[in-house]
Write a structure and sequence with these properties.
This protein is α+β, with helices and mostly antiparallel strands and 173 residues long. The protein has five helices and seven strands, in the order E-E-H-E-E-E-H-E-E-H-H-H. It is 18% helix and 35% strand. The structure holds zinc ion (ZN) (2 copies).
Length: 173
């Protein structure tokens, strides 16, 4: 996704767009992207400087941390960027008039702002540590390994008649 900054009005504008998965991936740090990335952002343009703050959302394919099945997982991220032109000869002007808070500075050449890199980075940072196929995922039986979302194993019933059942609940440190 390239944003032609000459098409943006001075001041603030709201933009929303979709970026095809093929523009962002494949990337070794990202799982497969299953849906176009939806981006909504507030853009503030002043001369050659463009500040972009927004949210993005997509669905990626991850392995559920409970049942170990591949599943589509929704990802939501943020982008906060301060695009500055390499051709800008008055950097001090921007420094004084616009003091963005903790925005990542990205330099651009010509008139195109390349948003693919910021979007990619944001997605990587937004990946869940413990993805779930669903909040209600029942996971695997710790005893027989059955996927409890798909089958109801007999382990619990067997446990009830097992005199050592209580020992299983003990934790050794
Ligand atoms: Zn699961
Ligand atoms: Zn079982």
């Amino acid at each position: 996704m390239k944003l032609d900054m000459t098409t943006l009005a001075e001041g603030s504008t709201t933009i929303s767009f979709e970026v095809q998965a093929s523009e962002i991936g494949p990337d070794p740090n990202l799982p497969e992207i299953l849906m176009p990335v939806r981006v909504e952002a507030l853009v503030f343009k002043r001369h050659s400087q463009v500040l972009i703050e927004g949210k993005l959302e997509t669905v990626v394919k991850m392995v559920c941390s409970r049942c170990l099945e591949s599943a589509p997982v929704k990802i939501q991220g943020e982008i906060r960027y301060d695009f500055r032109s390499l051709a800008d000869e008055t950097p001090s002007l921007k420094e004084e008039e616009l003091k963005p808070d903790e925005l990542d500075v990205e330099w651009y050449e010509g008139v195109d702002l390349d948003l693919n890199d910021p979007i990619r980075q944001s997605l990587i940072l937004s990946l869940p540590m413990r993805p779930l196929c669903s909040e209600q995922c029942l996971g695997l039986c710790p005893n027989c390994g059955s996927n409890l979302n798909l089958v109801k194993c007999q382990c619990r019933e067997e446990d009830d008649s097992n005199p050592f059942r209580k020992l299983k609940g003990l934790k050794f440190n």
